Amino acid sequence: MKRLAFAINLAFAAAPALAADSLQSVIKDHWAWSLAQSPTFATSVGVRDYDDRLQDSSLAAYETAVEDQRRFLARLEALDESALSPADRVNYDLLKLDLENDIEAARFGGKYLAISNRRGPHTFLTGLPDDLPFFTVADYESYVKRLNAAPAYVEGVIGRLEKGIETGWVQPCEAMTGFEKSIRFHLVADARESAMMAPFDAKPATISDKDWKRLKDAGLRAVAEKAVPAIARFADFYDKSYKPACRQTIGASALPDGRAWYDHRARVFTTTPLTADEIHKVGLREVARIRKEMEATIKAAGFKGDFKAFQEFLRTDPRFYARTPLELMEKNSYVAKKIDGELPKLFGRLPRMPYTLKEIPADVAEGTTTAYYERPAGDGARAGVYRVNTSKLETRPLYEVEALTLHEAVPGHHLQIALAQELDLPEFRKYGGFTAFIEGWGLYAESLGLDVGFYEDPYSNFGRLSYEMWRACRLVVDTGIHAKGWTRAQAIAFMTENTALSTHNVTAEVDRYIANPGQALAYKIGELKFKELRARASRALGRKFDIRRFHDAALENGAVPLSVLEERIDRFIAEEKAR
Predict the structure, then answer these.
(1) For 244-295, how does the pLDDT look when each residue is reduced to its tens digit (9 = 90+)?
(2) End-to-end Cα distance, the chain
(3) Model confidence over 154-178: pLDDT tens digits?
């Protein structure tokens, strides 16, 4: 999960400030501008002014948007900070940091990396059925208009990628292996078989038969004549132009000014000033610590053999693997419902919005991660979704399901993100946020199973430790690849040696870090801060420490930088002492 990035221009929103400018007016104007940049997101939060369009994905629109952001930043800096209340000062600082991060990012060629090994214009277009509401005639009419806009969207992405080829800012060959398969998966001969026709599988009761036929026919034409040909255009471009131009190096430091870009991304994703060398050392310390816990767990399991033998045992014994996708989904569902009932022991406030479980789409499943989370719609029209990967079942061990579910669903991503959307905060904080907090919370949430009776057998506990080790290895591997000259093989070997992840999962993860530098640093850095602050509060408060009140305080401001979280918990400690 990461903060929203917006791409197109709305000139009026960033117009020069009036004499009576205020923080509230800047925040309001910036939010209106942000919604216009991302029309599908606007729809998901109930703003239907842009339902007839997709975002402008072109480089020109990106550059215009950066100029708009500069004007918003100037308006902020013209305000009298000393006159702001403490709450408004936080709003000021967070919006300013968001703008500064985006403006700084525009200095680098990362803006030309409009695809990764997990995403592209084809995944965006075919994902629209999962992101939009489908209840009324107007919903379907707007969807058809968006399908008809697919060619322009794809051309915008291609334009950015062409600039990347020209400047040397392209994805590494090794990380993109097989990417073309995910594109051509959607080049169906019969448009009725397209994933983009999924909204027409069942007619809503509110739509008449006559309207339904009209809408379905229009959708079929849009898919057949616009959307699928646009994806075919991208497939041809990728095969003929981009793939041959991919780079043989894998590290960000090999790109023009790439080391400065990586340092920027490390700061953004961790919200700390830690250098790549410092992060690498933190990772090595955590790997050593967790390895000792894993060795103790192996001993507790009564296993006769060393660490490597235990890894092989876990990777190959059939008892640890589901035989069917349904069996894997049922196991995840059981754990999800079990932890639901334990949440009142850990939190005083829970979100109203529910979540559901769905399989990861088949077109991307084999090349993507074990699971991920999709936030609920801001207007309440769609629940949160915990997506589970049911491909290659022999690589999805059941002993990892408890940690995985606690991270992606509750008390992890769904609880934190759905709750944030219900807080009394400016919208840019409800729906945005900082990755170190979001993913740090997700990893910290895995450990909360220990507080409520999970991980009772040594195998599931080893799965928890393996997941924590996985995130510790990320600190070592990501910085190794992008700042220390590590090879792909070196990164795969390090993770294979230290985790119980399957070879397939290790390879997919390493390719993810190669294609998306810095993002993987957020998890462990954030989790360490949550654990540090919990330990600080527990020591300071002794018997007065209430885990429910601590968690409520940690989550009450949404996903903030780790320094802001620390300030809040220090106030929490003082408040609890005085209570």
Answers:
(1) 999 999 999 999 999 999 999 999 999 999 999 999 999 999 999 999 999 9
(2) 36
(3) 999 999 999 999 999 999 999 999 9
pLDDT at 368: 80
CA distances from 377 to 374, 381, 418 (A): 9, 6, 9
Confidence band, pLDDT 50/70/90 cuts, at residue 444: very high
What distance in Å separates the CA atoms of residue 520 and residue 502, rounded to the nearest whole number?
A: 19
Cα 476 to Cα 133, 277, 281, 464, 480: the distances in Å are: 41, 9, 8, 19, 6
Q: How far apart are CA 400 and CA 417, in angstroms?
A: 23
In the chain, where are the structural domains located? 1-107, 113-248, 263-525
- Structure tokens belonging to residue 374: 């999709």
Provide the whole-model pTM: 0.93
Locate the DSSP E strands across 248-402. 355-359, 371-374, 384-388
Between β-strands 384-388 and 371-374, what pairing exists: parallel, antiparallel or unpaired? Answer: antiparallel
Q: Which amino acid is at 260?
A: A
Whole-number Cα distances in Å, 252 to 57, 169, 264, 270: 23, 10, 11, 17
Whether residue 86 contacts residue 37, with contact meaning beta carbons closer than 8 Å, is answered with: no
